[in-house]
Amino acid sequence: MGNCCASPVDPSEKKPKKGKKPNPFSLDYNKGPSGGGSKLTVLKDPTGRDIEACYELGQELGRGEFGVTYLCTDRSTGESLACKSISKKKLRTAVDIEDVRREVEIMRHMPAHPNIVRLKDTYEDDNAVHLVMELCEGGELFDRIVARGHYTERAAAVVTKTIVEVVQMCHKHGVMHRDLKPENFLFANKKETAALKAIDFGLSVFFKPGERFSEIVGSPYYMAPEVLKRNYGPEVDVWSAGVILYILLCGVPPFWAETEQGVAQAIIRSVIDFKRDPWPRVSDNAKDLVKRMLDPDPRRRLTAQEVLDHPWLQNAKKAPNVSLGETVKARLQQFSVMNKFKKRALRVVAEHLSVEEAADIREMFRAMDISNSGKLTLEELKLGLHKLGHQIADADVKILMDAVIISLNKAFSYSLNKV
Known about the structure:
This is Non-specific serine/threonine protein kinase protein. It comes from Dioscorea alata. The protein has helices spanning 94-109, 141-147, 153-172, 225-228, 235-250, 260-269, 284-293, 304-309, 311-314, 326-352, 355-359, 361-368, 378-387, 394-402; strands spanning 55-63, 67-74, 80-87, 119-124, 128-134, 175-176, 185-187, 196-198, 205-206, 375-376, 415-416. By secondary structure, it is of the alpha+beta class. It is globular and about 60 Å long.
């Protein structure tokens, strides 16, 4: 499940079905007994049942596949918080329910940290689970970078240090994050000195030293090669942080392709491009750290502590303060815009499709594929939705296409063409 301070959880991040060779990023939920119904108990020891007794729920801040995030005010102190209300009707499988429980357990387990969002209270009534959390209203990482007039290697070093300190804290307490990406970091407030906070532990798990995992989870650009090989440990978080560092320094992901299969192949190859602008202007120390964090062999990859001990981060405040150029800022802005499109597309899906239709969404898209091409045109998508009784405005249908909804729900077996 996602966290209530920021972006909704990506419904793509689900367990693969067995029996056929899956697309490496096709992650479906395991089928299981329905989790809906008023008698379902999700949390082991919630703060209480009646959230309204202690908190006033205000305006909607965001909407995802599983729940709605509201502005939340503590009635006794007046503190502004965020509350993610997860509908029990959306918790259809045992996997869904366990995801919510585990996220709450992990957030309770983590010690207070200036760069990790705080879970304050949990409530559960007959209809929903409510997570009351610290409100992060300072905006997304890339948005703030773009808003600044001067973006430098030094600024990238400061951000990277914060992210890796979060990774170190997680690993120290036996938690593997598994979904580190720029969208999962928000600023606490709009002040220039605001803390950057990790805000989503929806895919995190507890681990023991030497324990290996095989479940493919996470977001395609940020997955380590051993995740795709289904044999990994906490080293994957350092890889993901390395991908973020690469993006911070040049504005584009290190492993990119036009298809998800292509992205997976690029990750496995792990060839890093240091030729494109602005890499010739980036310090050797920064490039050395990128290479060590993106070592395809997890045994050789730096640990979080070793990353923090690297000369580039040890001297973060002395890193070059020369601008990385307008090209990098423009790329980061484009990256941020695409993420916002994806969130808008997810909201369209959440508002227009019922739980049952979402569960059968792959079959629905196959039925829409009139030309049997394995891809959908804008007209096919619009006609298919209308046939199902969804009179969605053309503008909303276009959002689905433009945001490439395939990247939101990898259960889709179809790519969506831009028209």
